Amino acid sequence: MEAVKQYKETDMQAENPQLEQKVWNHRHILDLDDFTPAEIDLVMQTTDAMHEILSRPIKKVPTLRGKTVVTLFYEASTRTRSSFELAAKNLSADISNLTVSSSSVTKGESLIDTLETMEALGADIVVMRHPCSGAPNLASKHVKSSIINAGDGWHAHPTQALLDMYTMLKYKNSIKNLKVTIIGDIIHSRVAHSNIWSLTKMGADVTICGPSTLIPKGMDNPQPYFPKVKVTTDIDKAIKGADVVMGLRLQLERQQSGLLPSIREYAKLYQITEERLSKADKNVIVMHPGPVNEDIEIASSVVHGEKSVITEQVTNGVAVRMALFYLLAGGSRNE
Amino acid sequence: MNKSMLIKNGRIIDPSQGLDMTGDLLVSGGKIKSVAEIIKEIPADCSILDARHMVVCPGFIDFHCHLRQPGFEEKETIATGSRAAAAGGFTTICCMPNTSPALDNKATIDYIKAASAADACIRVLPIGCITRGRAGKELADMGELAEAGVVAFSDDGSTIADSRIMKQALEYSLIFGLPISDHCEDAMLSEGGQINEGIIATRLGLRGIPNAAEENIIARNIALAKLTGARIHICHISTHGSVELIRLAKKDGVKITAEVTPHHLTMDEEMVLGYDTNAKVNPPLRTRKDIDALIKGLKDGTIDIIATDHAPHTANEKLCEFSKAPFGISGFETAFGSLMKLVHNGDIELNLLISKMTAAPAKIIGNRFGTLGTLKVEAPADITVFNPDEEWTVDTDKFYSKGKNTPLNGVELKGKILATIYNGKAVYKDNSLKPGDKA
Predict the structure, then answer these.
(1) What are A125-172's pLDDT values in tens digits?
(2) Any residues with CB less than 8 A from the CB of B436 and at least 6 apart, and which?
(3) C-alpha dihedral (A71, A75, A80, A84), degrees to nearest 10
(4) What is the model's pLDDT at position B44?
């Protein structure tokens, strides 16, 4: 009851109650390729409001009371799932976690069967992580509930990209013209892909850098399918003057599949080190979606150094996910 | 069954004899009896099909399809597949041996022949395996298969990865003079690949299949065909590099023929945006640059024939995560309509299109199974009648094929099959033909 009393309309709503109806046009959050800059702005503003809630002694509001959120994870994850779970709980949703063990997959239960079961059990929002790219897109075509993509294959991780942007905005005035460099295993990184969409939409100047075997194909020619970014294999060139440097987790199996000669050589050529960072803008921030392989993709001293905002990304993740739940729940905000 | 049939006033196109005229065609006793501007003397029992504004040509021949029987009857059977083919204007289809069991011995070929005699409404010619069980390790009994009546050898679906086995298969095939038809895919390069390697794969986060996966094996096969002097046929080519390799090999005198599918000629990789598993096919849909090269190759003779690679799957098999879906497009019933887009766009001439689906595949098959792909007098009366300008909308619910897996559902096509005649008998007739037209 205390929580209910504490909850008040946020400034954003008070100023412009119609704003989100006009701007927000999503039933699902699959990737950021179909987000407008205004929608991204709205998510940022709403996250601010949620951030304020998180700073209260009692971090609970009744916005999603009576709504059921199901997390459906086909891949192991503790961090992302906990972040979604906390976000849902802070908004008073009922939450149910389902880890799909290989057993029901081997029993031949299809993704669509599972989703139909979730829906029959009353899920309003399904948070889904899946190893196959496009699985959430498939899900969204077959269910009435809202799907939030919590990472699919190499494709997209939209909530991560939104929390990354929110974190950048805590340190930088604007995303427009911000020099953002993403370093590492770009081709297999859903985090990088979603970040490229959101950052370029908001006018950032994005550079991707990594060994040529880990750079996505087909970006050299002008084409309408994927945002234009700068591509380089030279890390010093990539970092020079950067406002934001983002590392990515290097999956150790990349060596086994012959994409890299050795992890040692990768670290030598592409590790984000203090020395390399000295060529960046003096106010550079260093980000990483976690979990970090310290001293492989980023030097340990950088992870724990003053330029690192990696821990803050985690906190902001809860606020961003609260904002997304809130926006998806739509009309329930006045309850 | 009609004993005779007169097809009147049609535009008769038969590339096998350079024929393109308006006139009549008389069929009797299952054979072509005469072709003339006006045929006045007709038998008493003759039915008449008025083909004004229609094209009359030899029945289409498909050198590459999957009928799934035996073993995968939930996807297709000889009965449903042959009806779908007839609806697509085909009168002869060559079925690939990747069934279960695979068609790698006489008993399985005899089974296909018997099942076709019982269930098929058109001519079904089986292709036998190159290797036992399609395992790529030991040669199948190719002599026995040839004697049993296979039209070619292929392990389609898989490449013969072992170059020594491929060399020996080619050498051994010289005894029979039948082509070895190879699905060219370097499995080490394509492993785990879902769609064309390039920007669409980047956007969708899917593993790509590079052009080189196909071109590597084509280059190897050209070298081996040159070495052995045997006939090599290249299945479903999809890249501009493949066209170039084959063009040079032909110039070099290698006994090579090549096919291209309707989907590789008319659709690019964009079709998979939105993760449409119905556009997931192997080799993958490529780019506009590849399509342009394929069309050029078709025109200059580098690519001999158009073959559907009709690959039916159940709706459930395609209703899943993209990377779990099987490869393949159900192609019989949309092949002609989609290819006509090339004619209407001015990319190729109508006569060339017909040639690539009739006279050219007949030349690869040879005369072991009769005189095919022609309207010459005394040839089997295999005839397709179509309206080149009629527009229609693809509706997979109306497919004869069990495979509804096509990205063309709901798409409007211009060019419609109206009747398919096999051995003088109408095996398919469009509903629009007036009841009075007894065909």
Answers:
(1) 999 999 999 999 999 999 999 999 999 999 999 999 999 999 999 999
(2) none
(3) 0
(4) 87
- Residue B309 known to be catalytic: yes
Which residues of A fall within a CB distance of 8 Å from B316? Answer: 110
Q: Could you tell me the pLDDT band of residue A2, with boundaries at 50, 70 and 90?
A: very low
pLDDT value at residue A11 = 40
Please classify residue B375 by burial: count the beta carbons closer than 10 Å to its beta carbon, then call 0-12 exposed, 13-18 middle and 19+ buried: buried
Q: Please, are residues A79 and A87 in contact by the beta-carbon 8 Å criterion?
A: no
**A69: distance to nearest CA of chain B, Å?**
22
Distance from CA of A123 to the nearest CA of B (A): 21
pLDDT, residue B69, reads: 97
Reported ipTM: the value is: 0.91
Look up residue A20 and give its amino acid.
E
Q: Does B275 touch chain A (CB under 8 A)?
A: yes
What chain A holds in terms of domains, given with CATH numbers, is 23-156+315-329 (3.40.50.1370), 158-314 (3.40.50.1370)
Contact A31, A158 (CB under 8 A): yes
Residues 6 or more apart whose CB falls under 8 angstroms from that of B126 comprise B94, B95, B97, B103, B109, B112, B113, B149, B150, B151
The domain tally of chain B equals 1
The answer to whether residue B324 neighbours chain A at the CB level (below 8 Å) is yes
The answer on pLDDT for B162 being more than 60 is yes
Quick: pLDDT tens for B113-124.
999 999 999 999
Residue B224's domain comprises: 59-346
